[in-house]
From TrEMBL:
This is Glutamine synthetase. GO terms for biological process: glutamine biosynthetic process. Transmembrane segments: none annotated. SUPFAM superfamilies: Glutamine synthetase/guanido kinase. The lineage of its organism: Bacteria, Candidatus Walliibacteriota. It comes from Candidatus Wallbacteria bacterium GWC2_49_35. Pfam families: Gln-synt_C, Gln-synt_C-ter, GSIII_N. Residues 68-163 form the GS beta-grasp domain.
């Protein structure tokens, strides 16, 4: 029997808090369950009888688990999740002085949370604040056990009164439909009859840091911004690589076990945990799931992590770059396409026919990056991720694809039509199609690539650790769906003409190889040469978020969203505004936090120590004078007062210290001025421009001076916990 995180069997507690298909099968009448399966699996329309029956069973199940309230759980554009609890309460119509627990099908399907304060990017004015949440039956409802009563959470989409998309989930769900339809179209060309859906599968590896709460609580930057804005390089960082895959400390393991226990109950299939490269950096990876479920689960994972970390005296940091000088955190999104026959369409096949099909899906992925690399870049842009992208530890800000040596070779050979000089093992002459045998590439993977093909899936490595995966995955799905349609159309046209399907496909694949060459890059993405080469290949380069966000509104880049009905122009425009607003607000808050920390902690510490040095130097000078005066009287003191008594270095240090204090004081004044300038600018794009051109360099300069002072100030005077305290807490 599972009693708690100290003692449990995974298979017994898995899904204990989810109203999943197993529970539904058990609780629903057979016919209703069958109908529900059709809704989830085949996209059939939901009727009100089914909704009522599901609502009733869901309520009974939730009440038995101690739920008092329910909420439509949704993902507004803040990147977080939102909930507004309603009690299961209604006056009994037969006995109006008593209340009963009630929950109807219509309450399950839709709710109107008002929700006028969520970002809408201008799509909704406050006077027509209505936003609706609509049940997503494809993601199981779950129970959050908290406080005195549990809460039934119903995964939902969030839309405006006029049907405009206001959340992260709706575009993801639409993109999943789009890629399923496009993939099925291709599969049908290859003769498939049985496949009725293709699922975008995602496994998100989540990196994070744990800081000790007792030190983190004394840092305003960690509390407000979730990352440090100041802090000198610790004497030891990650250079020894002794943390990576190291043995997990008891205190951390305790946290991980409770954290995973909570997740497993919510059906999050936690699989892997390990120490990461930077000190006190960790990773958790669940088994991959269908994209929208993986997205819901990743949101739950991030929330649960923060909550359980607190119980263990930690602060979980999900920011992309919580500490300078050590690696930042990403969220590698592993992505593939799996059909209802259980085949992974990105898995190289065993027969030439299968391989031909594999190549079509592979080329569609390359075409997606070639055509919509800018949009993919925009989908992962955030103030936090800017610190990571392009640094020598994370994928660069340029979208390219790594395929590995063998696949690259095969594509080159198909393109050139030469098949002779391929080695036996990786190549098989198949007569008609002359198609190389493609097997899983065993070569080492390229960790510097933002999008790496890893044998049977793509790893989108540029996604930031704090980001919702919904938008990056929605963009990837949409871009690949568009490419699949394009390839299918070309294959159809050519086959009609030539009457030879295989030859037509090879022709189309060949053209696609030629057309997508510029996004293939096998080298070191961190190198300076790549930056130059990418520019020469005219790949979209965006060095920061404001530059990246412009791709949202570039019609060439966003055509896969508009063309497939994922988001319309107005919805894209609103997202563009929301992203700018979020970027600006994030940095404005960081700027305000830094000003406060410099004024109230760093400079007061520095002035205190400056006073100590001043008085120390002053007394040394006074002592020398006294000795000089006395030396005439006392011969013994004569030598002590001689020129050996050199206090110049002390004076020099004082000057240097006082100089740095003045410099920081001036920097603080400048930061205040810039802050006013930014506050007074109303235009979002101009505001972002001020941030990039003025605020960020000024913040960096102030930081350099503050960090210098930290390294030379008496630790008793320095009130701010240091990196060593934050990173090496045991
Ligand atoms: P790594 O060597 O990068 O750790 P893993 O095989 O452990 O690779 O996978 C990392 C993540 O990728 C996990 O979340 C895993 O479930 C997911 N993953 C594995 N296969 C697929 C697939 N076909 N599609 C999507 N995600 C996958
Ligand atoms: Mg990986």
């Amino acid at each position: 029997m599972a009693t708690g995180p100290e003692n449990f069997k995974i298979s017994e507690i898995f899904g204990e808090c989810t109203f999943n298909l197993n529970v539904m099968k058990d609780k629903l009448p057979k016919q209703v369950f069958k109908k529900f399966l059709d809704i989830v699996e085949k996209g059939r329309k939901l009727d009100s009888d089914t909704a009522d029956a599901v609502a009733h069973a869901m309520k009974e199940w939730a009440l038995a688990k101690g739920a008092t309230h329910y909420t439509h759980w949704f993902q507004p554009m803040t990147g977080l999740t939102a909930e507004k609890h309603d009690a299961f309460i209604q006056f009994d119509s037969d006995d109006p002085i008593s209340v009963i627990e009630r929950f109807s099908g219509s309450q399950l399907i839709q709710s109107e949370p008002d929700a006028s304060s969520f970002p809408s990017g201008g799509m909704r004015s406050t006077f027509e604040a209505r936003g609706y949440t609509a049940w997503d039956p494809t993601s199981p409802a779950f129970i959050i056990e908290r406080g005195r009563g549990s809460i039934l959470c119903i995964p939902s989409a969030f839309i405006s009164y006029h049907g405009g998309v206001l959340d992260m989930k709706t575009p993801l769900l639409r993109s999943m439909e789009a890629i399923s339809a496009a993939a099925i179209r291709v599969l049908k060309l290859f003769g498939s009859k049985s496949v009725y859906r293709v699922k975008a599968a995602v496994g998100a590896e989540q990196e994070y840091f744990l800081a000790d709460e007792k030190f983190a609580d004394k840092r305003l930057d960690i509390k407000i911004c979730g990352r440090t804005l100041l802090g000198a390089r610790p004497v030891k960082g990650q250079e020894m690589e002794d943390h990576y895959f190291g043995s997990i400390k008891d205190r951390v393991l305790d946290f991980m076990q409770e954290f995973e226990f909570e997740l497993l109950k919510l059906s999050v299939p936690c699989k892997t945990r390990h120490n990461e490269v930077a000190p006190r950096q960790f990773e958790i990876a669940p088994i991959f799931e269908e994209a929208n479920i993986a997205a819901d689960h990743n949101q739950l994972l991030m929330e649960t992590m923060k909550r359980i970390a607190k119980k263990h005296g930690f602060v979980a940091l999900l920011a992309e770059k919580p500490f300078a000088y050590v690696n930042g955190s990403g969220k590698h999104c592993n992505w593939s396409l799996i059909d209802t026959d259980g085949n992974n369409l990105l898995e190289p096949g065993k027969t030439p026919e299968e391989n031909l099909q594999f190549l079509v899906f592979l080329m569609a992925s390359l075409m997606a990056v070639e055509k919509h690399g800018g949009l993919l870049r925009a989908s992962i842009a955030s103030a936090g991720n800017d610190h990571r992208l392009g640094a020598n530890e994370a994928p660069p800000a340029i979208m390219s694809v790594f395929l590995g040596e063998m696949l690259s070779k095969i594509l080159d050979q198909i393109e050139s039509g030469k098949v002779k000089d391929v080695n036996e093992k990786s190549f098989l002459d198949m007569g008609i199609s002359k198609l190389p045998k493609v097997s899983k590439d065993q070569t080492d993977r390229n960790r510097t690539s933002p999008l790496a093909f890893t044998g049977n899936k793509f790893e989108f490595r540029a996604v930031g650790s704090s980001s919702s995966i919904s938008i990056p995955v929605a963009v990837l799905n949409s871009a690949v769906a568009e490419a699949l349609h394009e390839l299918a159309s070309r294959i159809e046209t050519l086959t009609k003409k030539s009457k030879n399907f295989d030859a037509s496909v090879i022709e189309v694949v060949k053209a696609a190889i030629r057309g997508t060459k510029k996004v293939r890059f096998e080298g070191n993405n961190y190198s300076e040469q790549w930056l130059n080469e990418a520019a020469a290949r005219s790949l979209p380069i965006a060095r920061n978020t404001p530059e990246a966000l412009k791709f949202w509104i570039d019609p060439k880049q966003n055509s896969c969203l508009t063309g497939l009905g994922i988001l319309n122009e107005e919805e894209i425009e609103s997202r563009y505004h929301i992203c700018f607003e979020q970027y600006n607000k994030t940095i404005e808050i960081e700027l305000a936090t830094m000003i406060k920390m410099l004024s109230r902690q760093v400079l007061p510490s520095a002035y205190l120590y400056q006073k100590e040095i001043a008085s120390s130097v002053e007394s040394a000078v006074a002592l020398r004078e006294t000795l000089k005066d006395l030396s005439g009287i006392n011969a013994k003191l004569k030598s002590a007062a001689s020129e050996d008594f050199d206090i110049e270095p002390q004076v020099r240090f004082f000057k240097e210290y006082a100089g740095a204090v003045s410099k920081l004081q001036t920097a603080l004044e400048q930061l205040r001025g810039i802050k006013n300038e930014i506050t007074n600018e109303d235009d979002l794009v101009k505001k972002a421009d001020l941030i990039v051109k003025k605020a960020l360099p000024a913040m960096q300069a102030a930081r350099t001076t503050a960090d210098f002072l930290e390294t030379v100030t008496d630790s008793d005077c320095w009130s701010l916990p240091t990196y060593s305290e934050l990173l090496f807490w045991d």
